Amino acid sequence: xxxxxxxxxxxxxxxxxxxxxxxxxxxxxxxxxxxxxxxxxxxxxxxxxxxxxxxxxxxxxxxxxxxxxxxxxxxxxxxxxxxxxxxxxxxxxxxxxxxxxxxxxxxxxxxxxxxxxxxxxxxxxxxxxxxxxxxxxxxxxxxxxxxxxxxxxxxxxxxxxxxxxxxxxxxxxxxxxxxxxxxxxx
Length: 186
Fold this sequence. Notes:
With 186 residues, the protein is an alpha+beta fold. It has helices spanning 5-12, 17-90, 119-127, 144-153, 163-166, and strands at residues 104-108, 111-115, 130-135, 138-143, 158-159.
């Protein structure tokens, strides 16, 4: 194989041995500086990989939140379907009242609502044996056991009289002995 250019220049006498030594020394210095720069390249590579890992972690977190939201929405749809099924299976037909009977009055979100029911159903509502369920734009009558099941799923949809509602709250109430009749018109 042929000689290097440096050796050829030395043989020809164009370059001196001192210049060749200086060239080797400069070359070694450049290589050393390049190696050091390569280490900073490793640091840059580490920083870049950390940024990539952080971006991947952020994407995983966003995906997890999206999955949780989708799961919550699916559970809400399932709960709604279950509530509608329970109401439809356990609905008690509302009997038409006689012409002179007033409607049953109850409150929903502070507003008084009226439901025309028969005398027997009004008595059962007042005794707490029936409950009114307002869900998905429909008003239905259901028995107490069904109302308890529905209260666990959608507590705001069920309106019923409980034992706590029947008892006076104040033992010193002067009107405790006077019960308000169910057919009282406001």
